[in-house]
Amino acid sequence: MASIWEYANPRKFLETSDRVLPGLALLAAILLVVGLVWGFFFTPDDYRQGSTVKIIYLHVPSALIAINGWLMMLVASLIWLIRRHHVSALAARAAAPVGATMTVIALLTGAIWGQPMWGTWWAWDPRLTSFLILFLFYLGYIALWAAIEDDDTAADLTSILCLVGSVFALLSRYAVNFWNQGLHQGASLSMDKADNVANVFYVPLLVCMAGFVMLFLALVLLRTQTEIRARRMRALLARERMS
Amino acid sequence: MPELGKYAAAVLTSYAVSLLLLAGLAAFSLWRARRVRAALRKVEDRARRHG
């Protein structure tokens, strides 16, 4: 069986991801269309929240990816710091804009949902606040990559930033458990509280979550390919200038 | 179209904003991927020609 470290070779990574990408993108599109159409058109209103419950099909999956996207960046950053594989540093860089977009979607849909339900767009609630800080970390991470010319130095510094930001990624997930206060409810789905969301909402929500995960993977693969090619181009241009 | 009642604006805005952001991200990622691939091909061709 092939070792996972084979994919640290940029050429091998490009070959394999080229083969996987079309299927992954198609699967993401199918799951998203099925999940969102099902959730929007074929689920009933909630007895308390009315039709706003339909926002759950965007809010929960995007929040899931916002948090886990950062954790994926953390793993990739640790691989870079320990084993110095360029592909892993570039994968972390590629994932950041995707995670940032998901964080924006979670924050915006949360605000739009919160207004009619809580009577306010925003509250300095532990989960909302830690999510906002996570978004600022995403922006800082993207800006740091853009600000440093040397790729290896940028990878080192952004990896450290990623380690620090992981505290807020975890806080975003567990804030409601640490501080039993604030407007935001507990987790909509959890291993020990499977009946938090009624089945009629639960199944299309799972389909949407699977669709968001596939979309994240497809976009990260595509963007990592782009980062690998951009890095090679910078190296060739530098060689051209030297000769 | 389902009956969304008094929350129609909130629900529709959420879907519009989210789908727009997702489509924008996917479109930008594809556009940049094509642009970088084409630029790299040019640089590689030039490097081959000049040995």
Short description:
Chain A: Required for the export of heme to the periplasm for the biogenesis of c-type cytochromes. The complex is a heterodimer of chains A (243) and B (51). Chain A is built from six helices and no strands.
Structure, explained:
The complex is a heterodimer of chains A (243) and B (51). Chain A has one domain (19-43, 54-242). Chain A has helices at 10-41, 56-83, 86-118, 126-147, 151-178, 199-242. Chain A contains six helices and no strands. Chain A has 243 residues and is an all-alpha fold. The mean pLDDT of chain A is 90. In chain B, 16% of the residues are buried. The longest helix of chain B is centred in the middle third of the chain and has 42 residues, at 8-49. Chain B is rod-shaped. Chain B has one helix spanning 8-49. Chain B has a domain at 23-51. Chain B contains one helix and no strands. With 51 residues, chain B is mainly α. Helices cover 82% and strands 0% of the residues of chain B. The chains are: A mainly alpha (243), B mainly alpha (51). Chain A binds chain B through residues 36, 40-41, 45, 50-52, 54-55, 58-59, 62, 97-98, 101, 104-105, 108-109, 112-113, 115-116, 215, 219, 222-223, 225-226, 229-230, 232-233, 236-237, 239-240, 243, and chain B through 2-8, 10-11, 13-15, 17-18, 21-22, 25-26, 29-30, 32-33, 36-37, 39-40, 43-44, 46-47, 50. Chain B: Belongs to the CcmD/CycX/HelD family. Chain B: Required for the export of heme to the periplasm for the biogenesis of c-type cytochromes. Chain B: It is a single-pass membrane protein. Chain B: One of its GO terms (biological process) is cytochrome complex assembly. Chain B: Its main location: membrane.
Number of strands of chain B: 0
- Number of spatially distinct domains of chain A: 1
Shape of chain A: globular
Main sheet overview of chain A: none
Provide the gyration radius of chain B in Å: 21 Å
3D shape of chain B: rod-shaped
- Measure the end-to-end span of chain A: 42 Å
First CA to last CA of chain B: what distance? Answer: 63 Å
Find the biggest chain interface: A-B, 38 and 31 residues
What gyration radius of chain A follows from the Cα positions, in whole Å?
20 Å
Topology order of chain B in helix (H) and strand (E) letters:
H
**Beta-strand segment tally of chain A:** 0
Overall mean confidence score, pLDDT of chain A: 90
Spell out the helices and strands of chain A N to C: HHHHHH
Q: What's the overall average pLDDT of chain B, rounded? A: 94
Helix tally of chain B equals 1
Class inferred from helices and paired strands of chain A: mainly alpha
What count of helical segments of chain A does DSSP give? 6
Strand content of chain A: under 5%
Subcellular location (chain A): Cell inner membrane; Membrane
GO cellular component, one term (chain A): plasma membrane
GO molecular function, one term (chain A): heme binding
Function (chain A): Required for the export of heme to the periplasm for the biogenesis of c-type cytochromes.
